[in-house]
Amino acid sequence: MSGANSWLSRQRKSDLVELAEKVGLQDYESLRKSELELQLDEYLSDNATQFQGDPSLANYFASRARTAGSPVKKDLDLRVARRRITKAVEEIVAVDSEEESSPNPTSATTALIQTPGRALSLASRIPLPATPADVAQAVDRGTVAVRERVASIYQESGITERTQATRENLSTVQSILFFISVFELYFLRPSLLPYKLAFTIPAIQALNTNPWDVYLPDLFHLLTSDFWSLALTWTFTSFAFPALLGYFFNLSAGNSTTGGSGKGRHRAGYTEYVIDPLTFSLAKGIVTYVVYGQGASFNGWISPSVVRDINNALYSGYKGVLVGSGVSTLAAIYDAALKK
Asked: Contact, 293 vs 286, CB < 8 A?
């Protein structure tokens, strides 16, 4: 490492590779950083007259000038030093061959002692392993690349945009009413479409398993009167009748215009509902209490046995429906207050 130029030693390997491509150095791809420094130092010193005018190499030639006086003198010294290194290598090789043929073990040691400077120059060309600083820089570059890649994948996935869109769609009174109805249907479904044994998976002795019965909804129950009586009664009390009242007694339609009779201009920023959610929730709570709580049959149109089956199927009976109606009523009032 010490045999190369000090300015080259301070550069990263990626910068040295870029510099080698720029100056036209050949066969540098397999070199280590220390070897690449020495090769660039030799190449630039041999072609100093060609690259002295390059502004990007001004620091390199300034460093050479500080250590050897001037670039021209340093160029001559480097050529002499290379000839000495070549001669030292030839002498060491010759000493090794003489050692093999001669039993005298002190000849190689004597040759190295006589030329300590040449031995140091030769040792400076031996490639050394990466320093801790090089390893830390490589780890940092890898960490930054992984972080940038993960960030780009997250942005390209569109998770943020989809999350915001889902939040906007669920932040409405209609969404609350929808999930309340789904909650009621979840508990009513076993009475509408009861499970029936479809088939049995036999036991497998190799896996030491027991027979497993598979139950599926009985779709033939759709053809029975029990299904339609339950479905129509729940639809009338929980959706059809409240929606009818919410359409005609629509408070949002009456307040969406600036005229006293509702025939004036529409108010900017005010949402007019087709079915008023407040009226819908109040009507649903009232009809649920009257039918399921008080047993009103509307002159025999609603069967008491059907009311009893629906009461037994729903979560907490008709009281659970009343709680859902109260929640949707509060949500409708809060939504109207925010839009004032």
From this structure: no
Closest to 191 measured CA to CA, from 287, 305, 290:
305
- Whether 177 contacts 281, CB under 8 Å: yes
C-alpha of 163 from chain center: 13
Whether residue 295 contacts residue 233, with contact meaning beta carbons closer than 8 Å, is answered with no
Report pLDDT digits (tens) over 29-81: 888 888 888 888 888 888 888 887 788 888 888 887 877 654 444 454 555 45
Q: Which residues pair with 173 in a beta bridge?
A: none
Question: What average pLDDT is seen over the chain?
Answer: 80
What is the sign, positive or negative, of the torsion defined by CA atoms of 243, 245, 248, 249? Answer: negative
Q: With the C-alpha atoms ordered 221, 222, 228, 231, is the resulting torsion angle positive or negative?
A: positive
Q: How far apart are CA 249 and CA 284, in angstroms?
A: 13
Least confident of 61-65, 93-97, 203-207: 93-97
CA of residue 127 relative to chain centroid, distance: 42
286 contacts 280 by C-beta, under 8 angstroms = no
Please compute, for residue 125, the number of CA atoms within 13 A of its CA located in the half-sphere on the CB side.
Answer: 13
Q: Give the Cα separation of 168 and 9 in Å (integer).
A: 58
Whole-angstrom distance, CA of residue 126 vs CA of residue 319: 88
Q: Distance between CA atoms of 68 and 80, rounded to whole angstroms?
A: 13
CB atoms within 10 A of CB 76: 13
DSSP 301-333: TS-HHHHHHHHHHSTTTHHHHHHHHHHHHHHHH
Give the separation between CA 200 and CA 215, rounded to whole angstroms: 9
**Lookup: tokens for 147:** 């972080």
CB-CB contact of 52 with 70 (8 Å): no
Q: Is-contact 62 10, C-beta < 8 A? A: no
What pTM, to 2 d.p., does this model score? 0.52
Structural contact between residues 270 and 308, judged by C-beta atoms closer than 8 angstroms: no
